[in-house]
Amino acid sequence: MRTTIKLAARYCILMTACILTVSAARLADSTLSSDDSDFVKNAAKGNITEIDLGHLAVQKATNPEVKAFANRMIRDHSKANEELTTLATSKGLDVSKSAPLSEDISSMRLKMLSGKSFDEAYIKLMIDDHKEDVAAFQKESESAQDIDVKRFASKILPILQGHLAKIVQIQTDFNAGK
């Protein structure tokens, strides 16, 4: 009986070691080029940042259009990040531990603001971020080496362009006192 238990324990330990080895090897062996991998990692961080800042804006914004836009950021970037995580995993890339960029100076400044000052700073940050995002997704949709990454970038690009157009319109309305 003891021998059977010892053999079963050794078998379990051996199987666990094999599973861990295979899992680690799969994560280490990303099938993406360096540029595509960097794009995926940055897109994941950007999504997490937009979600975090969206939650902050839902809490702190006073302008109803800004709050509605923040809710849209949470919804759209959560969905995009789910798709991106699935894509990354299928390519052997782990983006689940991607730290948000929301700890940069602009974001920390935003956390200290309130009222109209918050709304104004959030609008500006969203315009700047979405201009950068549109440029990055445009480039990747044209030059990604991996077809799935290219498809993802091409699919998300019009959504980001829509975000940019909407936040520019919100800024116009905000500056006009609407």
Classified in CATH, the superfamily of the largest domain is Ferritin, core subunit, four-helix bundle
N-C termini distance? 80 Å
Biggest sheet details: none
Work out the count of structural domains.
Answer: 2
Q: Could you report the average pLDDT, rounded to the nearest whole number?
A: 85
Q: Low-confidence parts lasting 5 or more residues at pLDDT below 50?
A: 16-28
Helix-strand topology string: HHHHHH
**Oligomer classification:** single chain
State the CATH architecture of the largest domain. Answer: Up-down Bundle
Shape: elongated
What is the CATH first-level class name of the largest domain? Mainly Alpha
Helix content: over 70%
CATH topology descriptor of the largest domain: Ferritin
* CA gyration radius, whole angstroms: 21 Å
DSSP strand tally: 0
Number of helices: 6
Range of strand content: under 5%
- The structural class is mainly alpha
